[in-house]
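note to self: dont lose this again. the chain is below, predicted strucutre after it. 78 aa total, dont forget to put it in the shared folder this time
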Amino acid sequence: MAAQGDLLMVEERLLKILRCPLGKAKLREEKDSLVCERCGLRYPIRDGIPVMLIHEATLPAGVKEVKDLPCQKGGEKA
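---
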């Protein structure tokens, strides 16, 4: 991980290969999280390490359960 100011950031080369465990979509870094570009799940970054566990992720606004995410509907399950 590379430090940028006081905020630990995920290295660009790691970010290029990491994918959302559910829908396999790309992730973008926002503050202290990696966010799925498709479903909006937010995976925390703790001590500079992405925690890519679904049960540790934060659901996007308006979504109550993982099964309600776009990547989990319509036969698009991972």
